[in-house]
C-alpha cells in the first residue's frame, strides 16, 4: 500500500490520540477511588450491622424492662389488695395468712425492683453503645459519600478529556485515505497500536530493535510505501529519526 509520507507521519498524531483514549479508559477502570469505595461500603455495612446488633439488644432489654415493670405492678396490686383486706378487719387466721403473704410480696417486690434496676443500668450502657454506633455509622457514611463525590469528579474530568480527544480524533481521521485508515484500524484493533515511529532502528510500538537485514529492506523501500513492523505488525512511520 502506498501513501504520501506526510500523510503517514500524520498517523503518529492519530496513534497518540488513540493512546490517550486508551489511557483515559484505563484510568476510569482502575481509579483508586474504586477500591476506596469498596472499602468504604464494607465499613458502612459493618457499622450498620453493629448498630442493628446494639438496637436488637436495646429492644430485648426494653421488652424485659416492660415485663419486669408489669410483674412489679402485679405484685404491688396484690400487696394493696391484701393491705385493704387487713384494714377491713379480717379474722385472725386470715390475718396471719395475709401477713405471711404480704411479707412474701414485699420480698418479691424488692427482688424484682433490684432486677429492674440492674436491667436499667444495662440498658443505659447499651444505649451509650447505640449512640456510639450511630456516630460511627454517620462517619462511615460520610466517608463513603466523600469518596463517591471524588470519584464522580474524577470521572467528569475524564469524560471531558475523552470528549476532547474524541473530537480531535474525528478531525484527524478525515486526513487519511480510506485504505490507509482501514489498515491502521485493523492493526490497532488486533495489536493495540496501529502505527508507531521508527526511531533509531527501534519500533515505537513493540520497542524491539530491528536487525540490520530488516533495516536494509526498509531503507530500500520507497518513501511512499507503507511499512509494517515484522515483530508486532504496527505501521512503521519513517522520519529522519529512524536511523535509515
Description:
It is a single chain. With 244 residues, the protein is mostly helical. The chain has 2 domains: 5-25 and 177-242, Orthogonal Bundle (Helix Hairpins), CATH 1.10.287; 31-173, Helix Hairpins. It contains 5 helices and 4 strands. A 4-stranded mixed β-sheet has the order 2-1-4-3. Strand 1 (195-199) and strand 2 (202-203) form a beta hairpin. Helix 1 (5-29) packs antiparallel against helix 3 and helix 2 (32-87) runs antiparallel to helix 3. The longest helix has 82 residues, at 92-173. It is rod-shaped. The mean pLDDT is 94.
List the helices and strands and how they pair.
Elements: H1 5-29, H2 32-87, H3 92-173, H4 178-191, E1 195-199, E2 202-203, H5 212-220, E3 227-228, E4 235-238
Parallel strand pairs: 1-4
Antiparallel strand pairs: 1-2, 3-4
Helix pairs in contact: 1-3, 2-3
